[in-house]
Design brief:
The protein has about 110 residues and is mainly α. The protein has four helices and two strands; from the N terminus they run E-E-H-H-H-H.
């Protein structure tokens, strides 16, 4: 990680999809060559200058996305976020419509009483 202007806080680096995919391929290739998982993530991460936990997370997510292990796929997680956002927007719209109906209902009632 890179230091943030000397303040001691590390800054998060954004990696492209290609960089992530390349790192995952390298880990998988190394695992196939060595016939073992131990140390492969650390080795690839140091070779590329990436964070170990970042590479480990990419490999884990790729294993889920490829169906090698159980978990929530990237596509399912994206769709869930979209549905949650849509749900929030619909709840807001529903609340606005309820308030408008109440306001106009009260206004009609006042006009009717005159």
């Amino acid at each position: 990680m890179v230091s943030n202007q000397g303040f001691g806080k590390p800054t998060a680096r954004r990696y492209s999809l290609e960089e992530k995919a390349a790192a995952v391929r390298m880990v998988r290739t190394l695992r196939a060559e060595l016939g073992a998982d131990h140390g492969t993530v650390q080795r690839v991460a140091s070779q590329l200058g990436y964070g170990i936990e970042s590479v480990r997370a990419w490999v884990r997510q790729a294993d889920i996305d490829d169906g090698h292990v159980a978990g929530v796929s990237t596509d399912d997680a994206r769709r869930l976020r979209e549905l949650e956002q849509e749900n929030r927007e619909l709840r807001r719209a529903n609340e606005i419509l309820k308030r408008a109906a109440s306001f106009f209902g009260a206004e009609l009632d006042r006009q009717h009483r005159k």
